[in-house]
Amino acid sequence: MFRVVTVGRFDGVHLGHQRLLSYAKSLAEERGWCALAYTFPPEPPALLPLAAKVRLLKELVDEVEVVEWEKVRDLSAGEFLQKEVVGRLSGRALVMGPDHRFGRGREGDVSFARSFSQILGIEVHVISPVKVGNDIVSSRRVRELLQLGEVGKAVEILGRPPVLFGQRVAGAGLAKTLGFPTINLVLDPILARPKDGVYLAWTFWAGGDAPGLFYHGKRLTFPNLPPSAEIHLLSAPPNPLPEAFEVHLLKFLREDIRFPSPESLVKRISEDVVEAKNVLSALTPPRPILLGV
User: Fold this and answer.
1) Would you say domain 161-280 falls under CATH 2.40.30.30?
2) Residues of CATH 2.40.30.30 domain(s) within the chain?
3) How many other C-beta atoms lie within 10 A of the C-beta of residue 257?
4) Maximum Cα–Cα distance across the chain
5) Range 48-72 burial, b when 16+ CB lie within 10 A, else e
6) What is the rounded CA–CA span in Å between residue 12 and residue 196?
7) Is residue 293 scored above 70 in pLDDT?
8) According to CATH, where is 3.40.50.620 located in the chain?
9) CATH match of 3-132 with 3.40.50.620
10) Which tens digits make up the pLDDT trace of 38-81?
11) Quick check: 202 and 163 in contact, CB under 8 A?
12) Per residue in 83-97, pLDDT tens?
């Protein structure tokens, strides 16, 4: 079976990636071939863990090939096209963005691919980048927006909410004493971290989901406690509590600040809950990637 091959890290599988891969899929269907996404394991700070990235890629193309970077990093651009794309994968078309580089030392570019493709007898298709407003869609831009807490703009570039994955851990029990019990998480260490603060989020777990507030910060009101990532669900939590959670960030509500007293913090959390419920009334729940019903 011949293939249309698209190479990249595809971190986040954002709108630019989606355009590239959708084109590859359409081209493959025209030719009666398969569309293949050739990718690598994520490197921190990443927007998605590998399993989530592969799941999203499989929605766009027929096949996903995950290759350890160490296995191909020493191949020249010509060797990569000849040995990997054409030889091993039976690639007969390559779909790429105008700035994509490949091969040892990033020596391969669009010009090289077009020239070398004549020797190999393959097609090269170059797809223009996607722009959202003044932003050229890129994984780096999404990471910048997360660090700024600009979730809305990140949603526009990704085509879906940014997502975090974490495992449940025991907490200090503080949130429960304040009247707003939370589920404490250890976030996947490979993932990019959002700006410290409180977010409106939608959380998924195996068999269920619920909206809530997500906090990521240093617990400034309680300086003796370590930083935390935790979820307060707006409905009763599942019983028993699952181990793994998928948290979709919908809106940045406020900064992580130090309150003069626990009582003032409780008052502000109450206001956060009211705002979250008001915002949720106009929102459509996101679609889970790995967890959920």
Assistant:
1) yes
2) 161-280
3) 13
4) 73
5) bbeebbbbbbeebbbbbbeeeeeeb
6) 20
7) no
8) 3-132
9) yes
10) 999 999 999 999 999 999 999 999 999 999 999 999 999 999 99
11) no
12) 999 999 999 999 999
